[in-house]
């Protein structure tokens, strides 16, 4: 288990990154795996991938969001704190994100679940299930790329909490 953080003496929370569709770029996969491995030195961390929908050409964007939303909701558990990675979410500097994660480590008892949706975003039901929304940038990134950026930011947050020299300000 991860080294203790915060005031509770032990970390019970686990971070889960829930993705729609597998990461196809081998270079991204390698880097995501590298940073995920680094994060696991600090806290429980897992990446859960929901398979892509089949025959999406026959579905409208709304139908696709609805179908993906049903699959996302099946992955959620009671007690999860659900955070959507969404362009309309709150933006943080890396140090602020680290402070935010540390607060969650002291208040969330089970899983802190971050969700990266499909190409058309989230269904209304997924928005309803979410506790918060975070935006990683005002810029738009591919869903493949944002996975790497997010996992690196989680790693950066952990090193900031521990006072390690990875982040420079």
Would you summarize the structure shown here?
The chain has 169 residues and is α/β, with parallel strands linked by helices.
SSE layout and pairing:
Elements: E1 14-20, H1 26-39, E2 44-50, H2 61-75, E3 81-91, H3 94-107, E4 111-116, H4 124-129, E5 132-135, H5 143-161
Parallel strand pairs: 1-2, 1-4, 3-4, 3-5
Helix pairs in contact: 1-5, 3-5
Task: Describe the protein.
With 169 residues, this protein is of the alpha/beta class. It has one domain: Alpha/beta knot (3-Layer(aba) Sandwich). It is built from five helices and five strands, in the order βαβαβαβαβα. The protein has a five-stranded parallel sheet with strand order 2-1-4-3-5. The protein is globular. 28% of the residues are buried.
What brief labels describe this structure?
alpha/beta; single chain; 169 residues; 5-stranded parallel β-sheet; Alpha/beta knot
Q: On the 0-100 scale, what is the average pLDDT?
A: 91
Number of domains: 1
Rg on CA atoms, Å = 16 Å
Q: Ranges with pLDDT <50 over ≥5 residues?
A: 6-10
CATH architecture: 3-Layer(aba) Sandwich
Strand tally is 5
Overall body shape? globular
The N- to C-terminal Cα distance equals 29 Å
Query: What's the level 1 CATH class?
Result: Alpha Beta
SSE string:
EHEHEHEHEH
Question: What characterizes the major β-sheet?
Answer: 5 strands, parallel
Q: In what order do the strands lie side by side in the largest sheet?
A: 2-1-4-3-5
CATH superfamily: SPOUT methyltransferase, trefoil knot domain
What percent of the residues sit in helical stretches (DSSP H or I)? Answer: 40-55%
Report the sheet-strand fraction.
15-25%
Count of helix runs = 5
Supply the helix-strand structural class: alpha/beta
Q: State the CATH topology.
A: Alpha/beta knot
């Amino acid at each position: 288990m991860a080294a203790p953080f915060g005031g509770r003496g032990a970390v019970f929370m686990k971070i889960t990154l829930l993705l729609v569709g597998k990461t196809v770029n081998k270079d991204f996969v390698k880097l995501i795996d590298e940073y995920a491995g680094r994060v696991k030195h600090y806290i429980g961390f897992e990446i859960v991938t929901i398979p892509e929908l089949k025959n999406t050409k026959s579905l409208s964007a709304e139908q696709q969001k609805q179908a993906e939303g049903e699959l996302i909701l099946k992955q959620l558990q009671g007690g999860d704190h659900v955070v959507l990675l969404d362009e309309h979410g709150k933006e943080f500097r890396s140090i602020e994100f680290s402070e935010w994660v540390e607060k969650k480590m002291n208040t969330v008892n089970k899983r802190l679940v971050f969700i990266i949706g499909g190409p058309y975003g989230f269904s209304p039901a997924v928005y309803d299930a979410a506790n918060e929304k975070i935006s990683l940038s005002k810029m738009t990134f591919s869903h493949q790329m944002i996975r790497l950026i997010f996992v690196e930011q989680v790693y950066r947050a952990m090193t900031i909490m521990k006072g390690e020299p990875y982040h420079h300000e």
